[in-house]
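Re: that chain you flagged

S.,

Sorry for the slow reply, it's been a week of failed gels. I finally had a moment to sit down with the sequence you sent. For the record, here it is as I used it:
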Amino acid sequence: MLFYTLAEANIIDQILGYVDQGLDFIAGQATWLQLVIYAFIAIFILVGFFIFIKKFIKVFIVLAILGGGVYYLWTQTSVLDFIKEFINGFSAFITSTSLWL
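Prediction finished late last night. Pasting the structure tokens below so you have them in one place:
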């Protein structure tokens, strides 16, 4: 029932409506207050970005190490070519044995 409700009402349009209301509210304020509000929003976004990086730094490091390892294997060795040939040979073996069944 919840999925039907969410699918029926366009959530994105509702969110954009709230954003438009907020921007209209800010535009109606004094210039100095607009500056304070925009500075607060910028600080809020930057703090959130750094908290996101802090939470997922281990994942970023692991992905960077894995990516570097795969790049090294791809460019400096023939290990990935051997694995590709092995998989192709294995699939040919499975195909040829399944024809006899």
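What I noticed first: The chain has one domain: 2-99.

Talk soon,
D.
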